[in-house]
């Protein structure tokens, strides 16, 4: 045995036999109990044992982790980590989630998980349309006030003559989800087409009107522009920076209830598109294709 181990073994045996310096001051009862436990632990260590004895009146579950050997501590930590994974509903023996609390994300990461796309698409688009002079924070505050107004609004009374979009829930559920409230109002009055004008192609210097389909983002942009124009023409009921968001929210409620003038604009665009749909077959358009 190396000399250092012999010295350590001799010191442990001497400590176990109680060969210590005399103490002039009597130790407290809990100090005597701790000393007895340390002497028993040293005696066990000198006899090449691995687990110390438990002092009288103390449970094994309250032992400090430093009293266990290093390899036994690592085993306990691994076991506890496996149990935590089971508690979170993960497979503790799966290599892909080993060492991760919630598992690894699937690659490639979709674009909607990017920080720039953390808001709803409709809310993000309408906020940008509300923005003036690059003041995005003010537009976000206005959108927050609009959604808060829709959340506290009463159940809308629908007009059967002006039905909402197909995915709209029951009217009593609309105030519970203000984002859905906003999306339903915009998609319900969003036009399906726009009228394009080709100058001088109708003869006599007149423009040739041709209906053209709109993409989803274009439809929503046009509808919200109509809503903002209608809200701007309303009289304010007070003063302050909250008045315009409240007028916009009132116009959105009027759209859902079928009382807004935005419905008339949508009807006029579709009516005009139906009237000029014959111009799609004009031979002069083929030269532009």
TrEMBL record:
Pfam families: Ribosomal_S7. GO terms for biological process: translation. It is found in: Mitochondrion. One of its GO terms (cellular component) is ribosome. Keywords: Mitochondrion, Ribonucleoprotein, Ribosomal protein. InterPro entries: Ribosomal_uS7, Ribosomal_uS7_dom, Ribosomal_uS7_dom_sf, Ribosomal_uS7m_fungi. Residues 118-277 form the Small ribosomal subunit protein uS7 domain. Component of the mitochondrial ribosome (mitoribosome), a dedicated translation machinery responsible for the synthesis of mitochondrial genome-encoded proteins, including at least some of the essential transmembrane subunits of the mitochondrial respiratory chain. The mitoribosomes are attached to the mitochondrial inner membrane and translation products are cotranslationally integrated into the membrane. Belongs to the universal ribosomal protein uS7 family. This is Small ribosomal subunit protein uS7m. It comes from Podospora australis. The lineage of its organism: Eukaryota, Fungi, Dikarya, Ascomycota, Pezizomycotina.
């Amino acid at each position: 045995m190396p000399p250092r181990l012999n010295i350590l073994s001799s010191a442990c045996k001497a400590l176990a036999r109680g060969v210590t310096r005399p103490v002039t001051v009597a130790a407290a009862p809990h100090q005597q109990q701790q000393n007895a436990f340390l002497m028993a632990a040293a005696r066990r260590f000198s006899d090449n044992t691995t687990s110390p004895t438990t002092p009288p009146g103390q449970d094994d579950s309250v032992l400090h982790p430093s009293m266990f050997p290093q390899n036994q501590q690592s085993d306990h930590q691994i076991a506890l980590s496996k149990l935590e994974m089971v508690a979170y509903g993960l497979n503790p023996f799966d290599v892909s989630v080993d060492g991760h609390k919630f598992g690894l994300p699937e690659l490639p990461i979709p674009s909607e998980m990017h920080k720039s796309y953390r808001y709803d698409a409709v809310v993000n688009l309408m906020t940008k349309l509300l923005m003036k002079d690059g003041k995005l924070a003010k537009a976000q505050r206005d959108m927050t006030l609009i959604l808060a107004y829709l959340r506290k609004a009463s159940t809308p009374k629908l007009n059967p003559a002006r039905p909402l979009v197909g995915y709209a829930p029951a009217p009593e559920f609309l105030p519970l989800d203000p984002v859905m409230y906003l999306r339903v109002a915009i998609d319900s009055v969003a036009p399906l087409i726009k009228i394009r004008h080709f100058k001088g192609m109708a003869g006599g210097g007149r423009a040739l009107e041709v209906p053209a389909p709109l993409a989803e983002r274009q439809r929503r942009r046009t509808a919200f522009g109509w809503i903002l124009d209608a809200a701007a023409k309303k009289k304010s009921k007070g003063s302050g920076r909250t008045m315009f968001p409240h007028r916009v929210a009132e116009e959105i409620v009027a759209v859902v209830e079928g009382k807004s003038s935005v419905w008339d604009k949508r009807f006029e665009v579709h009516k005009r598109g139906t009237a000029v749909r014959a111009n799609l077959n004009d031979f002069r358009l083929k030269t532009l294709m």
